[in-house]
Amino acid sequence: MAVGNEWINGYLEAILDAGVKLREQRGAAAVQLPPLLPAPEDAASAVATAATYSPTRYFVEEVVSRFDDRDLHKTWTKVVAMRNSQERNNRLENLCWRIWNVARRKKQVEWEFSRQLSRRRLEQELGSREAAADLSELSEGEKDGKPDTHPPPAAAAAEAAADDGGGGDHQQQQQQPPPHQLSRFARINSDPRIVSDEEEEVTTDRNLYIVLISIHGLVRGENMELGRDSDTGGQVKYVVELARALAATPGVHRVDLLTRQISCPDVDWTYGEPVEMLTVPAADADDEDGGGGSSGGAYIVRLPCGPRDKYLPKESLWPHIPEFVDRALAHVTNVARALGEQLSPPPPSDGAGAAAQAVWPYVIHGHYADAAEVAALLASALNVPMVMTGHSLGRNKLEQLLKLGRMPRAEIQGTYKIARRIEAEETGLDAADMVVTSTKQEIEEQWGLYDGFDLKVERKLRVRRRRGVSCLGRYMPRMVVIPPGMDFSYVDTQDLAADGAGGAGDAADLQLLINPNKAKKPLPPIWSEVLRFFTNPHKPMILALSRPDPKKNVTTLLKAYGESRHLRELANLTLILGNRDDIEEMSGGAATVLTAVLKLIDRYDLYGQVAYPKHHKQTDVPHIYRLAAKTKGVFINPALVEPFGLTIIEAAAYGLPVVATKNGGPVDILKVLSNGLLVDPHDAAAITAALLSLLADKSRWSECRRSGLRNIHRFSWPHHCRLYLSHVAASCDHPAPHQLLRVPPSPSSSSAASAAAGGGGAAASSEPLSDSLRDLSLRISVDAASPDLSAGDSAAAILDALRRRRSTDRPAASSAARAIGFAPGRRQSLLVVAIDCYGDDGKPNVEQLKKVVELAMSAGDGDDAGGRGYVLSTGMTIPEAVDALRACGADPAGFDALICSSGAEICYPWKGEQLAADEEYAGHVAFRWPGDHVRSAVPRLGKADGAQEADLAVDAAACSVHCHAYAAKDASKVKKVDWIRQALRMRGFRCNLVYTRACTRLNVVPLSASRPRALRYLSIQWGIDLSKVAVLVGEKGDTDRERLLPGLHRTVILPGMVAAGSEELLRDEDGFTTEDVVAMDSPNIVTLADGQDIAAAAADLLKAI
């Protein structure tokens, strides 16, 4: 205890001394403690703050984290006893109290985190056990005697095509094997799968269209500003290189990388360009004239969302996600139709007006949480497979921040929008066919924290699918391990050959550096910067390259080296630990590591044996690897935990054997490369033994070098893409073309011809395209080796195809549309009534609904009334909606469509009295619908503690094929939407839940069904631009109301139209808020004021569409 108090006394004295210096410098009257953690709201200021070393912050953190209340109290007692009139003692007493309060707050945060984590893990365990119990019967079959090592052909093909590091099961329906082959099955193999060089390509004869999405940061093809801010990092480089590599893969025709368009004076003008070409289309590259006009290749497509003149951090982009989705939907639809026109035009026998089969995306791949949500919504609307990559995960970040104990959960949420990010990741898991990870550790330790993924349940589901048995409505996405690709084009194979020869070349290069009497040939400057540290530079080099971070465990490496006489005599040690000018000016953690390194070098007297240069450039890194290889050295990564291990792959590319930590990604990497040894990073003796084993045994060193070079291609981009596409083919369900959404038939050729004769044809041909393709100025960012490429010709060809497609899909002119008369699919705009008019008892408020319907009809009347359609969107069933309209005196046949049961059904009243639901839409929303399997689970999970069975019971009259309805007697007796959804996810059920009719009914509908998604379904089917859609909503409503507000459409909020809403049952207070979902200051959202002439105002607003 006494020793502890001496440390506290020293720290407090240091804080006071630092405060005196600050006061002298700033002229302040008192010491002010800086914040323990810089606020990251402004990324630039956060970086600047972190770069400034603060001794006060360092010592406060040491006192708070290393000592308990008794130490602090004892120090305070001592200070009080010695108190006198001196200002220093008074300040010391006050300082004790302040730090004590900080320590108490840290403990309180840690306790709250521990309590929440325990409760959450208990809920996850209960959900996992329940799901496992339901699935246990067939899983027991794995324990049968000796499983057959030769599974039936279908199962074997699937296993060969899709096994990976812990993932789910592919969605393709397989042929049932014969009964006699169902008796025994091989155990599921969870090892990472590597595609052999001889494997047959599954996509070489295809013209695939792939969509990648990465929203945040500054994305461009050349001169990437990596490290400019926290949003522009390795992910930007990864997605750009992935787009290029996929476009170069046989069978892939076009790759679009969708990102946000930024026209801001603070960033380069290139980020405001709508389209940037990344690679030359193959057809154009082969065209000697340079003007093939192909639409293939890789492109960065920038879509506006949110304020165009502001560069927003990723935490501020969440309210603008729906707008990005709508613009992406328009872009992908346009490109799909244009590609269909070019790649698969209709045969002449179909006639001149026949439409081509659209080339829909083969897969939509979202990167990071924001893009994962975009990809989920986009894939749901288009009925195409969806893949996601997390890159960095919100739950993992939340746990790390809470463990630090510096910020309570509410502050973390306000700063990082962490709850919104986690929900986006959960949404991605709901919709994903496949999740790409870098390592098995990411699957088990990071994705395992999520409600939507349980490794044990997923494996049981995989067994059942492989056996052709029902999964009881449960689903878990497949997790696949696909390491990031790397570009090895910069590796000089001649140098590798020379290094491998071992002798004259190596010795000559080193001799030129260390012998001043000989003329030196130009060699990398970094070589001399490193070798100047060594007394004997001829010895093999042990190379460590990392940030000066305690987690990188460099000090243990130094101890292992310093304590081994044999290792010191055999090899030199090179430590590349970032860049520095003055250690005292570095951040606390980095300064601590470097100070410890210097002390250890001095303790073991390692001068002349350890190199630790102060500066190096990124371009120097390849030369550093080459130098280590020329000395017959070894690369070591002794990190405590290494999520992936990119430096290990880089070292292997230069022929360096490696010693790496056994914790994390290096396990998978060395399993593939077989070029080194794994060690316990805490065991200095094991590190020493591994290094000596490689350095002293030249035959082992040579074998590891050869193995690394032989297998390094498995981490190349071509191999990454081949593995990626094989996993997509095995894991994703690709609907047949007839199952995809279809563009409605255009007007008859005679009507179109007459319209064109009247001058309408010119109007149609000049109709503007979406913002992403208007004025398509392709900025080519390809190598100068292709100077003959004509971007103008390619752009002209794309625009021409799009305009031809649009001219056949849309009416020639508004006058032609009016002449045709009423016909859905000919509408130019839509007016959607989505106001939830219910009374406190949950029954439709006929009086208010009548006002709304009359207002909508009167506002929609105008010169273009024939081109405007009407849609009712409600939580009521189809019969209830029809009865409510008739009670208002409105004719249901006046509406083009009724979206009912919270988006579970669409019907068309104009078709007749039957009012049957749209079967095609029913097939569309059936995706992952658990059906009757979830029906009994919802009441059990949805009732609050102490509630009776009747408080949430099945409402049979309101149920339909794709909607389970439950009557809720008392809102206080049921749980909120987010809680029930979380519980269902933990059990493998994927659904949307909506409280409607003033909290008196809970609708459980399929994952792809919702009122906003139904509206987008109609926009695609009828070819209506979402910017030509207006949605009328109330000030409150059902729990899905907030999802109706944002997007590209115009939203009009009418006051005083809703008496009772259901939004109180949406989410808990500690979750995210409506402001994280909707940008209420968007120009597309208009709130009419009380007392305003609503009819006139609404009519004026509708003229804009």
UniProtKB/TrEMBL annotation:
It comes from Oryza rufipogon (Brownbeard rice). Homodimer or homotetramer. Coiled coil: none annotated. Belongs to the glycosyltransferase 1 family. The keyword Ribonucleoprotein does not apply. Its EC number is 2.4.1.14. GO terms for molecular function: sucrose-phosphate synthase activity. One of its GO terms (biological process) is sucrose biosynthetic process. It is an enzyme of class 2 (transferase). Residues 122-184, 739-768 are annotated as: Disordered. This is Sucrose-phosphate synthase. NCBIfam families: sucrsPsyn_pln (TIGR02468). InterPro entries: Glyco_trans_1, Glyco_trans_4-like_N, SPP-like_dom, SPS, SPS_C, SPS_pln. It catalyses: beta-D-fructose 6-phosphate + UDP-alpha-D-glucose = sucrose 6(F)-phosphate + UDP + H(+). Residues 233-444 form the Glycosyltransferase subfamily 4-like N-terminal domain. The keyword Glycosyltransferase applies. Residues 122-132, 140-149 have a biased composition (Basic and acidic residues). Keywords: Glycosyltransferase, Transferase. Residues 536-700 form the Glycosyl transferase family domain. Pathway: Glycan biosynthesis; sucrose biosynthesis; sucrose from D-fructose 6-phosphate and UDP-alpha-D-glucose: step 1/2. Pfam families: Glyco_trans_4_4 (PF13579), Glycos_transf_1 (PF00534), S6PP (PF05116). Residues 896-1053 form the Sucrose phosphatase-like domain. Plays a role in photosynthetic sucrose synthesis by catalyzing the rate-limiting step of sucrose biosynthesis from UDP-glucose and fructose- 6-phosphate. Involved in the regulation of carbon partitioning in the leaves of plants. May regulate the synthesis of sucrose and therefore play a major role as a limiting factor in the export of photoassimilates out of the leaf. Plays a role for sucrose availability that is essential for plant growth and fiber elongation. Gene3D superfamilies: Glycogen Phosphorylase B.
